[in-house]
Amino acid sequence: MTDSASKNFPVDAVITWVDGADPEHAKKLNAYLTTLGDVRPRAANPIRFHHSGELDYCVNSLLRFAPWIRTIHIVTDNQIPAIINRLQGSEYEGRVVVVDHSVIFAGFEQYLPTFNSSSILAVLWRIPDLAEHFIFLNDDFALVQPVKASDFFREDKVVLRGNWRAFAESGWRKRVRRWVKEVLMKNKQSEQRAGYLAGQELSAAVVGFEKKYFQIPHNPHAWRVSTFKNFFEDNHALLEFSVSFRLRSAEQFIVEGLAAHLELKAGSAVVDNQLTTLQLKPADQVFFRIKNKIDAADKDIRTTFICIQSIEKAPESTQSFIFSWLNKRIGGV
Q1: Facing residues of 306 across strands?
Q2: Cα(231)–Cα(101) distance, rounded to whole angstroms?
Q3: Nearest-CA neighbor of 158 among 223, 225, 204?
Q4: Which of 8, 52, 57, 256 has the highest local Cβ count within 10 Å?
Q5: Pairing of strands 153-154, 269-271
Q6: Strands across the sheet with 276-280, in order?
């Protein structure tokens, strides 16, 4: 696909977001946790639902650096992010819309409310009027320089970023095989940690890969509605299995990995690692490392995406430094 043809090739963006400080959200989560007993599962750590304004940078970066995107859909649970009100009356009003969980979970309402990003991602393709080609982003993702539609889709193929890896030589290989056999079992909440790489292995196994999997980084992902629709029409029980988990579980596949492996198996993917991601973990990285990574990103023209995980856990001075840099690189709209 050429960029000149992008007007005839609509591409949407979908962002998942939650305001964990919302009393109603906390009330829903606590009510569900009481059904599990006194122990708060790892997947219900409050930090998973916090936000520090990352959504604004995500949306602003799309509007500024990807103006060819048709509609930005913010998926959430009966909440209205502040940026929606700020955009009212602007040229961007109407281009950023809110989609409630109740809409995409139609037919699976018994599994709401959900606090599980993997379950939510499994039904994003059900957003009404969503473009066939869309880009998925967590709210802690953002762009830091202009991108073209062809950076995500080329000649109706999706652009993947990542590398092939062998399956782990551990108990996970057996676990993958057992999971595939038991995937149609009824929901059971696992207390085992839902590891991102392990989940990608599961995703590869679901699609039929046995010896290696394509490891994808934390960056915006190019997806197609028809890829999910066709797969889940043939595997409806698998879809219900995935959305049934209200908290993240090691029993779940990673939706990002599922999409990538489905495209790879169909021959409808192009691997291109020219554009890279700056990944920051402010709570785990010392300040000088964060500063060095940002300085390096400013000098590297390949650095196009950023992922900032759990910035609210970092010292205020570190947060201030990162937000100041984001204001310079992204700005407002």
Answers
A1: 142, 278
A2: 21
A3: 223
A4: 57
A5: unpaired
A6: 141-143, 303-308, 276-280
The two structure tokens encoding residue 14: 């979908």
Q: How far apart are CA 313 and CA 213, in angstroms?
A: 32
Q: What is the pLDDT of residues 211-239, one digit of tens each?
A: 899 999 999 999 999 999 999 999 999 99
CA–CA separation, 119 vs 104, rounded Å?
Answer: 11
**What tokens were used for 122?**
């499994």
CB count within 10 Å of CB 182 equals 11
Asked whether 93 and 112 are in contact (CB, 8 A), the reply is: no
Residue 182, H or E segment:
helix 171-182
Residue 310 to residues 26, 47, 59: CA-CA distances in angstroms? 18, 7, 18
| Beta-carbon count within 10 A of 249 CB | 23
Phi-psi region of 5 (alpha: psi -120 to 50; beta: other; left: phi over 0): alpha
In residues, how long is the chain? 333
E strands present in 226-295 = 269-271, 276-280
Place of tokens 């955009």: 87
All domains in the chain, ordered by first residue:
3-329 (3.90.550)
Which helix H or strand E contains 308, and what residues bound it?
strand 303-308
Closest CA to 293 of 257, 331, 322, 261: 322
pTM reported for the whole predicted model: 0.88
Amino acid at 278: L
């992008």: which residue's tokens? 6
Alpha-helix residue ranges (DSSP H) falling in 72-168: 82-87, 101-104, 117-121
* Residues of the chain with confidence (pLDDT) below 70: 1-7, 38-52, 169-194
